[in-house]
Amino acid sequence: MNVLDKTYSQELDSKDSLAKYRKDFHIPVFSGKQALYFTGNSLGLMPKLAEKYMTEELEDWKKWGVEGHVHARRPWMPYHEFFSESLAKIVGGKPEEVVVMGSLTNNLHLLMVSFFRPKGKRTKILCEAKAFPSDQYALASQLRFHGLEPSEHLIEIGPRHGEHHIHQEDIRSALDQYGDQIAMMMIGGVNYYTGQVMDMKNLTAHAQSKGIIVGWDLAHGAGNVELQLHDWNVDFAAWCHYKYINSGPGATAGYFIHERHHGQSEIPRFEGWWGHDKETRFEMPDTFKPIPTAEAWQLSNAPVMAMAPLRASLDLFEQAGFHNLRTKSEKLTAYLQEVLEFIAIETVSNFEIITPRKERGAQLSLLVHGYGKPLFDHLTEQGVIADWREPNVIRMAPVPLYNSFEDVRAFGQILMNYLNTNRA
Questions:
Q1: How far apart are CA 51 and CA 247, in angstroms?
Q2: Domain residues for 354?
Q3: CATH at 400
Q4: pLDDT band at residue 265 under the 50/70/90 scheme
């Protein structure tokens, strides 16, 4: 079977019950035709509803002024609460464990104020090597804040020599070896570079059996892979909403704190008035009384204009159902792998997929030996919007809400044509 046969991709699309959601997004147009957009792992496309919801908030601001906090179509005072049910389904938490606030790295720092508390022998942080740089910076700066030298107190687990993904038994071995010295494990649930999905359930349990606090950065996990943060007993997690959850550049982020940590006033945290008990918040008391949910970690009232696009995306997630989206994602990504493997054989090309076949979400990372940036630039010129990572990796993420099987086939044909005329 020729996987680049257009009738094949069209047949797959005809059987896709989620294909109808493509029309609910603005797909960029370059040179008069729709782009083949595969960078939902970096910035998701704009839901058409986002403009409507933003306009409604502007209209209500215009109409009500400050009274919009109570009289807007969606009153602004409890605005952050409108997301809890939908997000809880996506990350596998309870609504009271999930909050929309701030930005990802900002939230990680705020959470580590509470959950990274080095004491005695327990002074180390275990993380993945080659995590997204912001995570590396955040972890190192947290150590320095506590007077600890990162080179001595940061345990980084990376791929074995000559390999690309992490053997998760290496993480378990490090937990066994240094367990009584580690205060916190904080790892990306999906590695941004390779797309590898970690075994979050079992790694969490293994670390906690050693008395270690466990947090996950889900920047590339939320809205992409199945998560059950509450059932996995995760202590805390944080994520952004501008990737797979399509809420716009620099969108307001989210976090999860397991309910067992709620209602404990002795937990250290940086406090703000929006985390104070709702019943007495406007009495402006001198002493902070935390809300007995994850909301206690909030600092300020909701940035409504920044949050409005998130409503649009979550509406679509609700309609489609996350399990259905994940099922389609698995099929789309498998088809992309089929196409790439077919092309590699047909063109005798030396490139490899460095994303594990089983431990993956929507993303495939392609190591393009010998081709480099000119190949990527050619794809861009042909309307393929992918993502380049030095030294020679192209990241691609077919997103189930708006990508089609025909998108994948069309990309494959462009790649095939290039490789047939440009030998490495």
A1: 11
A2: 6-16+321-421
A3: 3.90.1150.10
A4: confident
